[in-house]
Fold this protein.
Amino acid sequence: MDKATEAQGSDAVYWDPYRPDIGENPYPTFRRLREEAPLYYNQAYDFYALSRFADIETHLGDIETFSSARSDILEFIKEDIDIPKGMFIWEDPPLHTVYRNVVARVFTPKRMNDLENQIREYCARCLDPLVGAERIDFIADLGAKLPGGVIGMLLGIPDEERDVVRERVEAALRTETGKPMDVSQATYQGEGYEDYLDWRAKNPSDDLMTTLLGVEFKDETGTTRKLTREEVLIFVNVIAGAGNETTSRLIGWTGKILGDHPEQRRQIAADPGLIPAAIEEILRFEPPGPAVARYVTKDVEIRGQTVPAGSAILFLLASANRDEERFPDGDSFNVHREGPPHITFGRGIHSCLGSALARVEGRVALDEILKRFPDWTVDTQGAKLSSSSSTRGWDTMPAYTR
Amino acid sequence: MVDITYIESGGEKHVVDVDAGRSVMRGAVENDVRGIIGECGGSCLCATCHVYVDPAWLERVGGKSEAEELLLEEVCDLQSNSRLSCQIKVTEELEGLLVRLPEKQV
């Protein structure tokens, strides 16, 4: 049989990113993939998948073979959609390099870390009114608000307009349970930010939007120029879209995982020095983006099988993060874990540009939650999970604060 | 091939043969030196390949770019001999280079 590890009977391991019954707890399936089909082929949806840490680490950085030019979302790759110019996360070098360098110059770890105090104040504004309440919701009360708020801080969008921005982005990227992503969602190019951009162009400040409007760079033709209005809008869209749902999911998983591990939660509350390690372990244990997809540009041999040019392949980061070869006792949550870091932010030139921001948001949010609510129990009945081919996490995460 | 010595914060020592032309970061991640992450693959963006260059080697590894200077402000426990190892290119002159790894990268 030519196609690798195709299902050969009812006992063969099966995985796709759409089935809610698998998405609820994909880890037993991921374990079987790693053991039985480290190079997996799914015939129903025609894609390959890699699940072992070492394989993913080796191949994800090989951008000549595994291209991002048709996006990093499985459904979009299959449809061969038109990618808007300037959508740098979905480009290969040299164009990717040009744009990413521009963004890296303006979207620096320093700029993100400088937001720490503002993020703390924002958390306080969200959480203070809840002190004394019997029940909180990690998503509705914080996870749904904070990331959009922070993007607003970065871009300099006034407080009162931030919720509108967040809702717009969410609506553009939401999928229905059990269904692939609608391809029309890929064509969203930052509509809705235009008014704000035009106003900011006339009222410059020290925010990211102002910086993007003023930055000069050498484009792929060697011309030194500023970004066009369209390019700025796409950049804003990428930054807002990438940092919103994922960070909300991180906060939801924080509520869920620490609710399930009260001993460790108490240790963290007693010793806030553990917070950074706790956030890293949460990111390993339940990555908000469990998989990224690539387009295969040329025949490539993996594990003795040929993956043909033209294929779509998924890199299962969430599986790699549990790989026992790399993380002993990987299915256990342990904030005291030592050793190599997770691969949640990817590897190589497309690795997450906002990882520093995600970390500062996660750490500050956990700190501020624990100060007010050192104990909680998840309301399992009321918690609602959703997953797509690119993200997985909680739409609601209610908890009793005892 | 150029011999490079990496000493992890816990004291574990790795002597690795690295091809000239590769970066010191690459030499680490391709040879299971776990104290270096190299998340961004050498694009000078993530500051997860922080090393302390042995003072005897500091001049020979060359200078820092502006981008590296800016990013170094982000690392944990910055010292005067801190460098981002993705920005140090391995050459024959670096035979025997010694770098120490910080306790953590993020």
User: Anything to note?
Assistant: Chain A has one domain: 20-400. The CA atoms of residues 290 and 318 of chain A lie 5 Å apart. Chain A touches chain B through 25 residues (CB under 8 Å). Chain A has 17 helices and 14 strands.
